[in-house]
Structure formats: C-alpha cells, structure tokens
Amino acid sequence: MKRFTSNNMYQQKSKRSFLKVSILLISFLVFFTFVSANIVSEEEVIELGEPTKVSITKNYHGMTSSQVSVTVPQMHEPENIDGFDENGSLECVYREIWGKEIVCQIPDDIPENYSATISYETPSVSTIKDEYLLFEHQKRVLVPTDKYSLEVILPEGSGIISRDDLEPFSPEDAVTGSEGRRIFVRWDVDEISLGETRDFSVRYQELDVLSNIFPIDMTTLAIILILLISLGISVYFKFKKKEDTISSILPLLKEDEKEVLLNIIEKEGECEQRNLVRELDYSKAKISRLVKDLEERNLIKKIKEGRKNRIVLKKDVGNIERKD
C-alpha cells in the first residue's frame, strides 16, 4: 500500500513538471509568433530616483508582427506607461501572464526598419546598504539582439562610490560621464545571443556637501546669509560715507593743510608731529600752526606724550589715497 501511494505521488509530480515545461515552451513559441523580426539594437535608459524612470527604445529590421513589447523586471511596478514611434503614440497595456510585460500595438503599414519606444515610471528600485545605495539590473534576451546599451543615470546630488573594497559598477567596461548635474554609467554590448542573461550593477551615494561643511539646517543657513549680506551693506556704506567726507573736505583746505592731512592718512591715520616737520620740509612753527588749524576743523587730534606730540586722524574722516 505504501509503495502504491509513493508511485502515485511521483507520477503526479512528473505530470506537474511536464505541464510547467510545456507551458513555458508554448509561451516561448507564442512570443516568437508575435515578434517576427530581428532587433538591430535596443537602448535602455534608467533614471534612478523617486520615482525611477525607465525608457526602452527598440530598433527592428524586417518587422512583420503587430506589436512590440518589453519585459518588466520583477521588482518594478510600472506606472504612467507610454509608447510611441515616429508617427505618434501607441496603445499599450501592462499584463502579468507568464511574467511582467508591457505590450504596445503598432500600425499595419510600418516600414521595414521600424523603431518604437516604451517608457514607464516605478518607485525607487535601489537597495539601501550601510553606507551606499545599490542598483542591480538583469537583462534577459528573448530575441537575438545585435547591440544592447544600458545607461543608468544617478539621482541629482549623487556620485559613484569610491572604495577599495567595493566595485563601483559591474561589468567594469562601462563608460562614465555627466549629463549636466547628473552622473551616468553606460554599457554597450554587441551580439547578445538568444536566452543569454546579463547582470549590471552600480553602487552610489549621496554627495551631501553642504551638510558636511555646514552641519546646520537650511533655515539657520539662510539667516546667517542674510546677516552677512546686511553686514556687508553696512560696511560698504560706512566706508562710502568716509570717502564722501574726505572728498568734501579736501577742496576746502589750503594746499599746505592738504599736505599735512594726506601725510597723516598715508601713515594709517597716526604719526608724530616731528615726523611731519622732517618729511614735509616745513618749519616747526608752520607745522604747529597747520596742526592747530586741522585740530580746530575737528579733523585730527593732538595727544601730548611727554615732549612728543602724537597726531591722530579722527575716525569719522576715513582713508584716502594720496593723489599728486
């Protein structure tokens, strides 16, 4: 009795296995019935982000079927599906029969060399790791393809990871570059055979430069910027006022008074009175008189230090370059 039961179970399992294989073979044949053409090239662009945007362009030679289709990876959940060719939009449907796929109906009067693009959006497909994000993509070839290209565009503000213990992308024979403010990784593969599978991956991370330099929130940063701008404006007008003060004062002075005042300004607004005598070729009496006149005009201040007199420019007068 036990032997009979065991044989019976074995026969049931064999029937189920045979049925599965038969279904796969039938679906495989049906697929080639619908897609009667050679794919000259297939270009796939995946823009990572939230959402992730996928665009697949297929170029056919000798197209005789009534539809084009793309296989959707299992982890993708297509939304906002769109299909178009050079003549306009195509009617597309998403279905899950033997797998996920998008199928678009194409016109009857198409040229021998035909091109169509199918695009969709899906929630982020990257996997979060400890210190980076990982994007993985597997390409299964159901129709012989002369050339396949995959371009993965990283989110804005992200860069390819740089670590000795991890490969930044795989396969290694990729081309990297940037499209404006976004980095891309591109593979070009020639002559992919029927049933062949290719695996691609990119490891990347967010380049949060501002938060590393300024560990503060944007509101605080905005306040700091406003304060800095206000300070800059205040300083500008302060020095502008000093320049205006000098410009208005100089025409009112006599030539010898100008000489004394400009000499003090050149010495950063402070000097000893005896230095004025030595440098300006005026007598002590004349320098004393000129210093007294400028002090009465409230332009300088004389400070007595023992036997010396220190002459200091008033702060509200400012600085000016001497003009000969």
Task: Explain what this protein looks like in three dimensions.
This protein has 324 residues and is an alpha+beta fold. The chain has three domains: 1-33; 35-207, Immunoglobulin-like (Sandwich), CATH 2.60.40.1730; 240-313, Winged helix-like DNA-binding domain superfamily/Winged helix DNA-binding domain (Arc Repressor Mutant, subunit A, Orthogonal Bundle). Helices cover 32% and strands 37% of the residues. The chain contains six helices and 19 strands. The protein has helices spanning 2-34, 209-213, 218-249, 255-266, 273-280, 284-296; strands spanning 38-47, 52-61, 67-71, 79-85, 88-89, 91-96, 100-105, 113-122, 127-128, 133-140, 145-153, 158-160, 169-170, 175-179, 182-192, 197-206, 270-272, 300-305, 308-313. The protein has an eight-stranded mixed beta sheet, with no helix packed on it. Strands 9, 10, 12, 13 and 16 form a five-stranded antiparallel beta sheet that branches. Strand 1 and strand 2 (52-61) form a beta hairpin. Helix 5 crosses helix 6. The longest helix has 33 residues, at 2-34. The model is unreliable at 1-6, 20-35, 209-214 and 319-324 (pLDDT under 50).
Break the fold down into its secondary structure elements and pairings.
Blueprint: H1 2-34, E1 38-47, E2 52-61, E3 67-71, E4 79-85, E5 88-89, E6 91-96, E7 100-105, E8 113-122, E9 127-128, E10 133-140, E11 145-153, E12 158-160, E13 169-170, E14 175-179, E15 182-192, E16 197-206, H2 209-213, H3 218-249, H4 255-266, E17 270-272, H5 273-280, H6 284-296, E18 300-305, E19 308-313
Parallel strand pairs: 1-11
Antiparallel strand pairs: 1-2, 2-8, 3-7, 4-5, 4-8, 6-7, 9-10, 10-16, 11-15, 12-16, 13-16, 14-15, 17-19, 18-19
Helix pairs in contact: 4-6, 5-6
